[in-house]
Amino acid sequence: MRQQMEEALLKSDVEYAEIRIEDESKSWANFRGVALDSVGSSKTVGGMVRALYKGAWGYADFNDLKNLKVRVKEACESAKLIGKDKSKLARVEPVQHMTRFLLEKDFRNIPLSEKISVIQEYNDILLNYHEKIETTNVMYRDSFRKIWYANTEGTYIEDERPYATAYISATAKDGDNIQPGRESIGSSAGFQVVEGLHEKAEKAAKRAVDLLAAPPVKGGKYTVVTNPRLTGVFAHEAFGHLSESDFVYENERMKEIMVLGRRFGPNNLNIIDDGSFPDQQGTLKYDDEGVKTRQNYLIKDGILVGRLHSRETAATMGESVTGNARALAYHNEPIVRMTNTYINKGQSAFDDMIKDVKLGIYALDMIGGQTTMEMFTFSAGYAYMIRDGQICELIRDVVLTGNVFNTLMNIDMIGDDLQWAPGGPGGCGKGGQSGLTVGIGGPHIRIQDVVVGGRQ
Amino acid sequence: MIVEKIVEKAMKKAQGASAVLRRIKSDDIAFENDKLKSAKSSQSTAINLRVILDGKEGSSQTTDINDIDGLVERTLEVAEFGSKVHFDFPPFQEAPEVKVYDESVNDVNKDEMVNTSQEMMDIVKSYNSDILLHSGVEKSVRSAEYANSSGCQFSMQGTGFGMYVYGSWIRGTDILHAGHGFSWRKREVDHKAIAEKAVEFFRMAENTAKISSGEMSVIFLPQSIDVLLLALRMGFNGKNVFLGASPLAGKLGQKITDERFSLTDDPLIDYADNSGPYDSEGVTHQRTPLIENGTAVNFLYDLETAGKAGTKSTGNGPGCNPSNLVIDTGNTSYEQMIKDTKEGLIVNSVIGLGQGNPISGEFSVNVQLGYKIENGEVVGRVKDTMLAGNTYHALNNIESIGDKTEWNYGGVLTPTIKIKNLSIISK
Domain map of chain A by residue range? Predict the structure, then answer.
């Protein structure tokens, strides 16, 4: 492969070009209710050539690997057609690197029958948990991606990116009232991570049934305490996306807003993105431009100190590369993405966060979130009311919203209990590339004056 | 056809098989931050094989057209552990006429795409040069070949053409995103009208308005209709109905919305995004009314789910998902809807949709772009505002339905809908 790629790159007649090729094998199984709903496998081979000429990119993506040289030409022609400006690409030392993943239990050697029987056990737990459990959705999925990367500067990387995930969801029903209970896990460590999830299955079923009796949250402004998993989504949505410099690098107004040194949060707030943090959802040795990943402080002691870059955004802004150019799949171009984003731990004990809250919400786990830079939402899997310092009744439909320019400042306590979220089948979406695995984490945090949607 | 050979090979061991080969060639250009930034050419090939072996089904995919033997082998392997089947692959049926191919899309070159995009940007810039723009044009040519073991085989060709212009207007720390886009199967698109619509959405947001928390009328523009439609997409899915996960299970023939509300799944509209003669299981497409004058009349089915539920596929396979959704018009003009509102909200776009318990009908979303109405007039953009409600409750509280329909991209054709008394929480 290497020789083929390097020979094809010789056809490049632009300033910079690269080829990324991917071979992905997937398998999956899915129970819906009592029945196995689908079982399958897929094999995908494809690639992309990216060419830079006078500030513009030409892309060619393909499944057919036979004519790599033609694809290189095609990408170069596209770039030359539109390039009229000046190219900017941060310098990085060329590297030669090969990653081999040693999976503790390699899911490629596990027969499909075993994958099915593992999740069947979870499905049975859900189905037998309670008469109000109406149906289930229990899924197993694995993917092994082998990636080859070469560019005209002499970098050559072979990478392996395995991922196995399980999703366990129960639906409880009482008349028109339908409530979900969901648990998930995902990891690159091997098949063993999806084994032994019987307790998670039980938790999912219990939550679905419990939520049937839970009232919807009353809309309003609350003091909110988030658990570590939800704190992770908060860090990702509330600030992570805003620090992706492709939103900033060619936008003078955004540069004014996102000026380094600006205060965004209290003194004890630290937000970090770190692709080199071991064994998390967004862990990578090199990003999809061949740049080594590293720890990047975004907010340190409440002050904006850094942002996430591709080689192009780093050069344009005159800042250092960070290793954050990631492509979802072979046919996607690398764009600035987060890796593992977390709020660092503080000093508050959980009990102290709750005890003086008169009326608030303890919000746990996440369904998801979304941002438009200034405003953002994040949804809790479930939540409890806090009344007079006590955690009280379970409530449902808790979607929180914030504004980056005041919500971070409203964080008044940061817990001492940093944890990472367990991953799952979903991921982050941006620019048409949805489902990118990212790590999210943090401690419990307390935020004042959070707007929560709902009826009054 | 290659798919015939694949089916033939699979049938040496299997009792049923179907294969689809899809090829897509597409080109796009994109402006970012006012600058021409990228041009892309894509080629993709994918083969999907399903087999039935001893009453069980397995499926497999490959992108390698030379890996037919491997594909067949892997699919048979999977089927051994597969799910029990309740259907046969369909024999050939003559499909209804629907146009999805436009020869002239082939002739569009990248220069023309650049010009179209530039013209859209010029229109927005001439309204306000402070708005930083992203814009692009995409075209595609797709083909699909289908064959199964019941003797059905056909091939289809389609084209796609679309464009967008979006921008951000930043004043201090106030960030406003707005824009517009459209895509369908035909070259003929009024790109200037798209840009003018984008301008209108910016113009309405020139001022910022405070909205009070409470219950009030909310107008959903075609651009935001998914807030109301998401639950229905999931609720009319025959698989969710069969499993009891849909709140509509058992409600066919019952009134579920206001009588003025009618909804149809229609894959036979010429040049619409999700149109075509057949679904991906070789079943002919059909128009399926879902809600007629407020009454639930049909659910959507694929082969397997229909087999289990004892009904027929509606051509929504596999997956039982809708194709193009069409909502019938009412008789109130958009201007009148605004005039009739003392205090209310117009919703253009939201964030956080679907991130809760959408199948139940509940929604709780941040109004990314929405406008306040005061005494019959649009006074400005609202911010930091949550909108919450339940789709089924909302559709029983329709105040009025617009007298014109508009495409929300190329897959939903809908009028503007005004709902009474939805909950707003604002900071």
Answer: 2-212, 220-452
pLDDT at A295: 98
Q: Is the pLDDT score of A231 beyond 90?
A: yes
Q: CA B398, B399, B400: angle at the middle one, nearest 5?
A: 95
Distance from CA of B272 to the nearest CA of A (A): 21
ipTM: 0.94
**Helix residue ranges, H only, B220-294:** 226-235, 238-243
Are A59 and A46 within 8 A, CB to CB? no
Q: What is the arithmetic mean of pLDDT over A187-194?
A: 95
Which helix (H) or strand (E) covers residue B399, if one does?
strand B398-401
Domain ranges of chain B: 2-203, 207-427
Chosen from B32, B364, B381, B421 to mutate, greatest number of chain A CBs within 10 A: B364
The answer on pLDDT for A426 being more than 90 is no
- The answer to whether the CB atoms of A43 and B61 lie below 8 A apart is yes
Using a CB-CB cut-off of 8 Å, the residues of chain B touching A449 are 427
* Residue at B253: amino acid letter: G
Number of cross-chain residue pairs from A and B with Cβ atoms under 8 Å apart: 255
Q: For position B129, what pLDDT does the model report?
A: 97
Q: How far apart are CA A108 and CA A117, in angstroms?
A: 16
Measured between CA atoms, the residue of chain A closest to residue B175 is: A374
Phi then psi dihedrals of residue A107, to 5 deg: -65, -15
- Res B409: pLDDT: 86
Give me the CATH code for the A2-212 domain, please.
Answer: 3.30.2290.10
Looking at the partner chain, which of B33, B71, B384 has a beta carbon nearest the beta carbon of A250?
B33
C-alpha distances (whole Å) from B91 to each of B38, B60, B189, B303, B340 are 45, 22, 37, 13, 55
**Ramachandran quadrant class, A115 (left: phi over 0; alpha: psi -120 to 50; beta: rest):** alpha
CA distance A55 to B36: 9
Q: What is the pLDDT of residues A254-283, one digit of tens each?
A: 999 999 999 999 999 999 999 999 999 999
- Contacts of residue B24, defined as CB under 8 A and 6 or more positions apart, other chains included, come to B42, B43, B44, B140, B141, B142
Cβ burial of B24 (10 Å; 0-12, 13-18, 19+) is middle
pLDDT category at A30 given cuts 50, 70, 90 is very high
Closest CA to A402 of A235, A218, A254: A235
In chain A, which residue's Cα lies nearest the Cα of B349? A372
Task: Assign B226 to helix, strand or coil.
Answer: helix
Q: Which residues contact A368 (CB under 8 A, 6 or more apart)?
A: A233, A378, A379, A426, B352, B354, B355
Cis peptide before B318 (omega within 30 of 0): yes
Please say if the pLDDT value at position A196 is more than 90. yes
One CATH from 3.90.70.10, 3.50.50.60, 2.60.40.150, 3.30.2290.10 for B2-203: 3.30.2290.10
What is the mean pLDDT of the segment spanning B284-290?
A: 98
Mean pLDDT to the nearest integer, B311-326:
98
